[in-house]
Amino acid sequence: MKEWLRRLREPDEEGWQVISNVDVPALPPGSYRLPTLEKRPSHVREEIKLRYKILDGDRRTCRDCGRTPAQGASLQTHHVLPVHKGGKDDEENLTSRCDQCHGGRHALMEGAPKDESLDPEYEADPRDVSNLTRSVCQGRPTRHWVVSGHRYARRALHNKVRPLGPPP
C-alpha cells in the first residue's frame, strides 16, 4: 500500500496530475493515466514542512527519553490528542518521539492506562513481573516491554531484583 501511495505522491509533488483506478474505477488496478501533459507548479507537501518544524523545535530529540538520531533513535511526530479523537495536525498537537516511545504511547492509548505515572491507582499484574524476571534471568532483551507500554513492570522488576545483586 505504501509503495502505491508513493508512486502517486511523487509525480503529484513534481506537478503531474495522475489518475488511477481510485479516481476512475474503469481503469484496471495498478494502472495510471495522465489526463494532460501540462505540468502544474511543483510543491513540497505541507506535512513534510510541518514535520521538520516539529523535529527542529524539539531539537531533534525524543520528548520522552531524550534520545537523538546520533544515539540511534528514529524520530517520528506524535499527535498528543489523536486525530480520531479530534486532534489537529498543527504545532500545538504534535511532538517528537523516537519510534520506541511512540509505540509505547500508542500501546497506552489503546485501552486503560497501564502505567502508574498515568494512573496512580493501577497495580502491576504480578504475572508480568514474573515473566519479565524470567526474561531478564534468561538474558533475553526486555525492550519490547517498554515499547508496549509496560514500564510499570520494568520498575517493579527493578525494585524486586535490586536487593538480590548481580546474577551469579
Q: How would you summarize the topology of this molecule?
A:
Blueprint: H1 2-13, E1 19-20, E2 32-33, H2 46-57, E3 75-79, E4 94-98, H3 99-109, H4 126-137, H5 143-147, H6 151-161
Antiparallel strand pairs: 1-2, 3-4
Helix pairs in contact: 4-6
Describe the protein in words.
The protein has 168 residues and is mostly helical. It has 3 domains: 2-33, no CATH class; 46-109, DNA Binding (I), subunit A (Orthogonal Bundle); 112-168. Helices cover 38% and strands 8% of the residues. The chain contains 6 helices and 4 strands; from the N terminus they run αββαββαααα. The chain has helices at 2-13, 46-57, 99-109, 126-137, 143-147, 151-161; strands at 19-20, 32-33, 75-79, 94-98. The strands form 2 sheets. It has a two-stranded antiparallel sheet with strand order 1-2. A two-stranded antiparallel sheet has the order 3-4. The longest helix is centred in the first third of the chain and has 12 residues, at 2-13. The protein is elongated and about 65 Å long. Mean pLDDT is 72; it is low at 112-118 and 145-149.
Straight-line N-to-C gap: 50 Å
The fold-level CATH name of the largest domain is: DNA Binding (I), subunit A
| Strand order of the biggest β-sheet | 1-2
Roughly how much helix do the residues carry, as a percent range? 25-40%
How many separate domains?
A: 3
What is the number of beta strands?
Answer: 4
The chain-level structural class is mainly alpha
Unreliable spans: 112-118, 145-149
Under the CATH scheme, the architecture of the largest domain is: Orthogonal Bundle
CATH class of the largest domain: Mainly Alpha
The number of helical segments is 6
Shape: elongated
Task: Give the ordered list of helices and strands.
Answer: HEEHEEHHHH
Radius of gyration: 23 Å
Portion of residues in beta strands equals 5-15%
